[in-house]
Design a protein that fits this description.
The structure is a single chain. The chain is of the alpha/beta class and 335 residues long. The chain folds into two domains: 2-61, CRISPR-associated endonuclease Cas1, N-terminal domain (Ribosomal Protein L15, Chain: K, domain 2); 84-321, Four Helix Bundle (Hemerythrin (Met), subunit A), CATH 1.20.120. The chain is built from ten helices and twelve strands. The protein has helices spanning 50-58, 84-92, 98-125, 129-144, 151-167, 191-214, 232-238, 241-255, 277-292, 306-321; strands at residues 2-6, 11-16, 19-24, 27-33, 37-43, 46-48, 63-66, 72-76, 264-266, 273-275, 294-296, 303-305. Strand 3 (19-24) and strand 4 form a beta hairpin. The longest helix has 28 residues, at 98-125. The chain is globular, with a radius of gyration of 20 Å.
Length: 335
C-alpha cells in the first residue's frame, strides 16, 4: 500500500483492530492493514482519533498535513531514532569544511546530471537547438563544480543550473494544452507549477520520513541555509530526486494527457491553482506508482523502488559522515 493520501474533507480516520479505517458521511472509504502502511498524508481537512495517533507513533508511521493546493503545513512524527552517533557525526561537520563541501557538490552534481539526462532524452526524441544549448550549459556548470571550494559559490552554481533547466522546461512538454514560462510558487498560478509544487511537497514528506528512520536531525543541512523550522537536510536530499520522481510524474501526466486544464480550479482569494478532487486522485495515484516503480540502483547493482531509494541514499550519507565510506554517491539515473 505504501502511503495513504486522504483528500476527502471532513473524513474521519480511525483504527479498528490492526487496520486504518477511513470513512465520510457514514460511508467507508478505505480500510487497510497497518502493517502495509508507511505514511499518512492529509490534504485539506480531516479528523482522526487519539487511538490512531497512538498507533501511528508506536509503529513509527509519520503523518503529514498539506493544504489542497499542496502547501506543506507540518507533520506528526514518531520519536527520533536512538542512533545518536549519526546526529553527532552530522553536527560535527561545519560549513566550508572538506566534508560539507563534498556533500554539497554531490547533491548539486546529482541534481544537475539528472536534469541534463532529462533534457538529453527529450532532445533525442525531437532534436532541438535550445535543448542542446541548455544541456551543454548545464554540463559546463557540472564541470566547474570541482573548481569551487566555497559553499556560497556552489549554491550559486546550483541556482544557475536550475534556472537553465526551467528555462527550457516548456520544451519537455508535448501537450499543447499546457505551457510553462517560469517557475512560480507561494502560490503557484498556473497548472504546471501547481503540479510541481504539490509533487515537491509530497517528496519532502517522503525524504523527511527517511531522515527520521536513519536518525538524522532534519533541520541541519549543508546545501540549504538553516532557518528556524526549515528541514534543510530533507531539502538537501530531495535535490537529486526532484527530476527523477516529481518532474517525471508531472511530465508523464501532462504529456500522456492523463490530466487536462479542466482538472484545475482557481482559489478565489489567492488566485492559486489547485487540482479538482478527481484530478488530485489521478496525481496521487501516479505519484505513488512512481515511488513503487523499480529501477537498477547504480551503486548497489540491484533492483529497488524509489521509495526504498529515499532511505538508501540517506543511509549512504550517514555512512559518509561516520567515515565508513570515502564519498557520498548521489543517485543518478541515465535516461
Amino acid at each position: 500500500m505504501g502511503t495513504i493520501y486522504v483528500t476527502q474533507d471532513d473524513a474521519f480516520i480511525g483504527k479498528i483492530d490492526e487496520r486504518i479505517h477511513i470513512k465520510a458521511d457514514k460511508q467507508k472509504l478505505l480500510e487497510v492493514p497497518l502493517i502495509k502502511v508507511d505514511g499518512l498524508v492529509i490534504l485539506g481537512r480531516a479528523n482522526f482519533s487519539p487511538a490512531l495517533v497512538a498507533e501511528l507513533l508506536k509503529r513509527k508511521i509519520p503523518m503529514s498535513f498539506l493544504t489542497t493546493t499542496g502547501k506543506y503545513l507540518g507533520r506528526l512524527e514518531p520519536e527520533l531514532s536512538k542512533n545518536i552517533f549519526v546526529r553527532k557525526a552530522q553536527w560535527s561537520v561545519e560549513e566550508n569544511t572538506e566534508k560539507s563541501i563534498h556533500i554539497v557538490k554531490a547533491f548539486i552534481r546529482g541534481k544537475l546530471k539528472n536534469y541534463r539526462n532529462f533534457i538529453k532524452l527529450r532532445h533525442r526524441q525531437i532534436p532541438n537547438n535550445r535543448l542542446q544549448n541548455s544541456s551543454d550549459k548545464i554540463q559546463q556548470i557540472i564541470d566547474s563544480l570541482d573548481y569551487k571550494n566555497n559553499i556560497n559559490s556552489l549554491r550559486g552554481l546550483e541556482g544557475a543550473g536550475s534556472a537553465i533547466y526551467f528555462g527550457c522546461f516548456d520544451q519537455l512538454i508535448k501537450n499543447k494544452q499546457f505551457s510553462f514560462s517560469t517557475r512560480n510558487r507561494r502560490p503557484p498560478t498556473d497548472p504546471v507549477n501547481s503540479l510541481l509544487s504539490l509533487g515537491y511537497a509530497l517528496l519532502r514528506h517522503d525524504l523527511q520520513s527517511a531522515i527520521n528512520i536513519v536518525g538524522f536531525d532534519p533541520y541541519l543541512g549543508y546545501l540549504h541555509v538553516s532557518h528556524y523550522g526549515r528541514p534543510s537536510l530533507a531539502l538537501d536530499l530531495m535535490e537529486e530526486f526532484r527530476p527523477l520522481v516529481t518532474d517525471a510524474v508531472v511530465l508523464n501526466l501532462i504529456n500522456n494527457q492523463k490530466l487536462n486544464p479542466k482538472d484545475f480550479i482557481t482559489e478565489p482569494l489567492s488566485n492559486a491553482l489547485s487540482l479538482t478532487k478527481e484530478g488530485l486522485k489521478i496525481f496521487l495515484r501516479s505519484y505513488e506508482e512512481k515511488k513503487q516503480s523499480k529501477f537498477k540502483h547504480p551503486v548497489l547493482k540491484r533492483q529497488c523502488t524509489y521509495q526504498e531509494a529515499f532511505e538508501i541514499q540517506t543511509r549512504f550519507l550517514a555512512k559518509y559522515l561516520m567515515e565508513e565510506t570515502e564519498q557520498y554517491p548521489p543517485l543518478i539515473i541515465k535516461k
